[in-house]
Amino acid sequence: MASQRLPSLVEDDARLDALASYAILDTPAERGFDDIVLLACQLCQVPVSLVSLVADDRQWFKARVNFPSCGTDLNSSVCAHALAQPDEVLVIPDLTADPRTRANPLVTGDPFIRFYAGAPLVMPDGHVLGSLCVIDKAVRPAGLTEAQAENLKALARQVVTQLELRRAVMTRDQARGEEQRAYQVREALRDAQARIAATGDDLDAVLQAVVAGAIQAVPTAEGGVIELLDGDRLEYRAVRGTLAPHLGLRVPLATSSAGYCARTGLPYLMADAASDPHVRRDLVAGLGLGSAILAPIPHGDAVLGVLKLQAARPGAFTRGDLDILGLFTSAATAGLTEATARADARAKDVYWRGLFDRLSEGFVVGEVIRDAAGHVADWRYVEVNPAWGELIGIDPSTVAGRTVREVIPDIENEWVSEVADVVATGRTANFTRRIGTLGRWYEGRAFALDGDRFGIIFLEVTARVEADARRLALLSLGDRLRDLATVGEMTRAAAEIVGRTLGATRAGFGRIEGDVEAIEVEPDWTAPGIPSIAGRHRFDDYGDIRAHLRRGDALVIDDVATDPRTRDDPGPMRAIDVGALVNMPVRERGRTVAVFIVHDVQARIWTPEELSFLRNVADRLEVGVARVRAEELQAVLNTELAHRLKNTLAVVQSIATQTLRGVTEREPVDAFERRVLALSRAHDVLMQKSWAAARMQAVMESVLGMQADLDRFAFDGPDMDISPQAALSLTLLLHELATNALKYGSLSANSGQVRVAWRTEDGTAPALVLDWTETGGPAAAAPTGRGGFGSKLIRMGLVGTRKADLRYASTGLRAEFRAPLTDIQIQVH
Amino acid sequence: MTELHPNHAIVLVVEDDPILMLSLVDFVENAGCEAIEATTVADAIRILETRPDIRTVFTDLDMRGSTAGMALALSIRDRWPPIELLMVSSQPWDAAQIPARGVVFGKPFDRRRIVAAIQRFAA
């Protein structure tokens, strides 16, 4: 085989690449090349001519004349030797004689060729791809003429030109094809995306659009499917073409081609299903699967599923198709993400909507209405929730588009001005407010939305507000009852508080007469337009209500027209504007002596809370009345006692005077009379506070006013309550001081004055300090001797402390008295 | 004493308590007047009807039948308008209830003021 050595150029990679670039091997015969070999036969006077292209393992004939096969292996090639001398025509006159060819099978066997001449096919880039050759079965020792050789070379150049032309046309067509293809793919992708966008949040529609688009983009595909991962299986969720019958098919993730693709996360080209290692054999026939391309649908790091296109024949798809498939899986991912987001958003909408509908709070979305000047005088309901209807008592489906003043006529202006303010300032407003016409209280907040819109969320708090009102009413009643001095004032105060608190139309107090036969109603409280029923009424005139009251129970009638005790003839009740009533007994020493009356002109249901409130009011009234009665009795007793005491003191004066009738010196008698008188003055002051205390200045003025005009005294000190003992002591002390001042001191002179000043001193032992200062009279002199009873009283000082500092100055007497404040003031227990 | 002060003013003293009567008469005499005693309202009226020379009545308002004294005072003001009225009482009286020109003193007695008042009326 040494003789068969071929030029090394045969296997040159660059040359082989160049050959491949012409894509000429195994292509059908073409006229251009066939004509050239015909011309070569005639030119060289041979029967056989070939356009031979030398590949790495064979030679292949693009055109041939009188040669049986379209190619041979390289052992049989003569042309291969032509490659070695690109500039010349290789001429071998006797192939049996040439060492390169004598062993060639075509020489040694059929067709027994003997002459060969070949012009190399030298391409413009210098590569030699083969030759244009002529062959004869007879030895031709003369070879070719020079002209024949030149002409053969010229024809070889024509072959090269043909090859060049052919490649140029092919390249152009391929470019056009690719352009067309890319356009198709883009078109298909755009269609798919448009369909995805139009599907909204319908997941299956998104998948369907992706499959349709992929099939459109890869025309060799006959069927398509998106299989979505569901646990350890993949489910056929969107199918098309030959796969259409297989919707819902589930294949195992572990043992299927789609599963392989999903597990690896990589695109996969299944060139031939028959030999594919990953496909499920049992499915191949059923699915009509010859070849397929598969690409994962990624979502972040995870894989949602697989997009697969298939064809019945093997090898229907290329790598390029796999790339196109990638475009569609991306679209699928985007579509799925978008659809999921939209589905989430819709689910959220549904969620919020449900919340809005189920909310126990009332919810209003409203919009303010402006007049020409921009002033807000009303607002319109945009939307309300079902709870709004329950809390307001109006069918919520009827209010959208109407204004609040239409829906709730006579609604308070605050319900409009507040939201106007909220819309104007953007500030949230909290409210607790009543809608008067509904008689219900609401608490909530109003907040700005966009533009002229606002929201109100609220709850009804009528029960709480009314409970608060009742509690406050009881407190207020307690205060009023404590301060009021007569039963009449008390019952009127209670009637007004109860009437206003319960929103009743009449409230009053009536005394029971006889055996619950009649009632004397005191001046009552009434709502505007409701007449008073003060005066006497007979129970039997109003229905069968007497027996109830006799038992001492509260009489409660929600509706006089239906209550069995009054329904037979509700006329008399109606005549005094009573639609509903409560008579709550007030007892005195266990007996019902009065009733507290509450009327409403309308029928109404008296709640247990309201009745309990009334019971409470009646109880307080009982206590208050009892206190007033006790105080009245006490006052009578006090007055009587004071009267008797003073009368008795007058009798004591008389007895003393008569007893001392024989005493010629009248002065001590007179002094005695006046001391008794002074003591009595102290009692007068004490009686004003039921002998519990006295006002200090009143005590002083009372006793000193007995001695001289009060304008001769100057008082200076903090007025305070002092104890009865201190009052008596102070009275006797000042009486003696004033008596002396009249006799010897400043008051003996016309212009003389006395200043009485007192103060308290704080410290460990707080004290009262009282100063008596005489001015404008003669110089004072100490009394001679021990002095009489008067001097003793003065030296005893206040409440017997003996802390008396007496100074006999030239301007007059100056005395200072001290006593512990605790002995002076009232001890509060 | 009447004969000692034949030319002095005559004061009718009305008092149902004999001990207090002693004091009231004392006050009248201290004032240099002559006292005529009546122990009941009826006595007083009878005396007034027979003694037109009485120019002053001095009565206790706290007599049995709590309003008897005041009733007397009011009827004197009605029937004998010129007569001056001097009264004592252990209870406070509303000024509106006191007959015109009447003066009320409290109990126990302030001798100086009572005597001064009798003298003023008698003058």
TrEMBL record, chain A:
Q: What Pfam families does the annotation carry?
A: GAF, GAF_2, HWE_HK, PAS_4
Q: Which InterPro entries match?
A: GAF, GAF-like_dom_sf, HATPase_C_sf, PAS-like_dom_sf, PAS_4, Sig_transdc_His_kinase_HWE
The UniProt keywords, alphabetically, are: ATP-binding, Kinase, Nucleotide-binding, Phosphoprotein, Transferase
Q: Where is the Signal transduction histidine kinase HWE region domain?
A: 640-719
**Which EC number(s) does the record attach to this protein?**
2.7.13.3
Q: What is the reaction catalyzed?
A: ATP + protein L-histidine = ADP + protein N-phospho-L-histidine
The UniProt record lists the GAF domain at: 28-173, 202-346, 486-635
Q: Output one GO MF annotation.
A: protein histidine kinase activity
Instruction: Supply the name of the protein.
Output: histidine kinase
UniProtKB/TrEMBL annotation, chain B:
Instruction: Give the signal peptide range.
Output: none
Q: Which UniProt keywords apply?
A: Kinase, Phosphoprotein, Transcription, Transcription regulation, Transferase
* Residues annotated as domain Response regulatory: 10-122
The GO terms this record gives for MF are: kinase activity
Biological process annotations from GO: phosphorelay signal transduction system
Asked if the keyword Transcription belongs to this entry, the reply reads yes
* Name of the featured protein: Histidine kinase
